[in-house]
Amino acid sequence: MKINNKNNHRYIPLLALLSGVAVTPVHAEQASPKPAEENKAKAFVDFRLRFESVDQDNALKDAEGLTLRTLLHYQTKQFNGFSAVVEFEDSRNAMGVEDYNDTIGNNTEYSVIADPNTTELDQGFVQYKGRGFTAKLGRQVITFDGHRYVGHVGWRQDKQTFDAASVNYKSDALSLSYAYLDKRNRIFAEEKDIDSKDHLLNASYSTSFGKFVAYGYLLEMDNGTDNALDTYGASFDGKTKLFSKPVSYRAEIATQTMESGNSEYDAEYANVEAGIGLGKFTVKLGFESLGSDDGDYGFSTPLATLHKFNGWSDQFLSTPAQGLDDLYVSVSGKLLSGSVMLAYHDFSANEEANGVDDLGDEINISYATKFMKNFNAGIKFANYSAGDNEAGKVDTDKVWIWVGARF
């Protein structure tokens, strides 16, 4: 891999990130032999039929879409530690319910439902596993940090994967990962995939009181322009008991530099969260801040599973230039034979600029269940109320109803 001397300063912090970390190899006598019955070829087919509706208070027509996602997955058995995975994914309109903007130029008079018709090789890689190491080469799913920076966007019918070379080492407490991404296979079908030269580094260490994570994500689109998006950060999360109640806690900070042509911006990130278990339910309170550079640039996470964060109505897939502060509370747990979740978000600008301070609020509700061993179903609702007019947001309601099966 050739590294331009102009950008060498970007890689020095990566070396510093791992300095002082001692890696103890796992010797052959320590490794547990893999039972013969586990070394089998594996195959499954997965279906998800989903209805989605979008009602926005603007000039666009309300959208409705019924789509069927079909996924075929096959993994060979191992031979001297080597195996291969092939996975195809197809997303199609079903029963003619297709009144929506699919993001690739169809029905643009409607609101967006980001599930275009497509058939793709979703994954196709060879891998080696042995002595704590896993190495993969080819198209693959890569996720880190609960999907906050790197995820598969599995909520959409065409999930995100990467053409990449990746390696991971894992012992009882230590995990070290590196990946080089040559292409980002995004959720909008092949015509919107992005060639890239991305470097992802993630290291974690688990203790009896929590897990420490340090990371460096150096992103660059391979489009002939001078661009870079470099993020370095660290997090800690753990669990304990307080008055016999399970308690969880986490904290995270990060810093980011974005370069585009002659422009350069810096922004900071912070997240704190605490949760407590109350019977069958868990209550969480958190604050997430995606910082701003003087109201001109907002902290960005372009490889994330963005739907998971800052509200399900997807108002903030791109962070506003004023940044985004999200104060949120959620209640989740078991109800009847499934899982329920209720969340509330209060959004505001990280730095007030151009008349933008109040970015609105949102309510999220979901219920999901499994039945007859191979089937699942659920319903989900998002209600967003806009804030300042200058922010360019509008009141939005979204509903999803789905049923799925795996064989």
- Which structural class do you get from the secondary structure elements? mainly beta
Largest sheet: 18 strands, antiparallel, barrel
Spell the H/E element sequence: HEEEEEEEEEEEEEEEEEE
Which runs of at least 5 residues are low in confidence (pLDDT < 50)?
A: 1-33
Estimated share of beta-strand residues: over 45%
Spatial gap, N to C terminus: 42 Å
Percent of residues in helices comes to under 10%
Any idea what the radius of gyration is?
22 Å
- On the 0 to 100 scale, the average pLDDT is 92
The best one-word shape is: globular
Count of β-strands: 18
Distinct helical segment count? 1
Overall description:
The chain has 407 residues and is an all-beta fold. The chain contains 1 helix and 18 strands. The protein has an 18-stranded antiparallel β-barrel. The N terminus is likely disordered.
In short:
With 407 residues, this protein is mostly beta strands. It has one helix at residues 12-18, and strands spanning 42-56, 63-75, 82-99, 118-130, 133-140, 161-170, 174-185, 194-207, 210-219, 227-242, 245-260, 263-278, 281-290, 324-335, 338-353, 356-371, 375-385, 396-406.
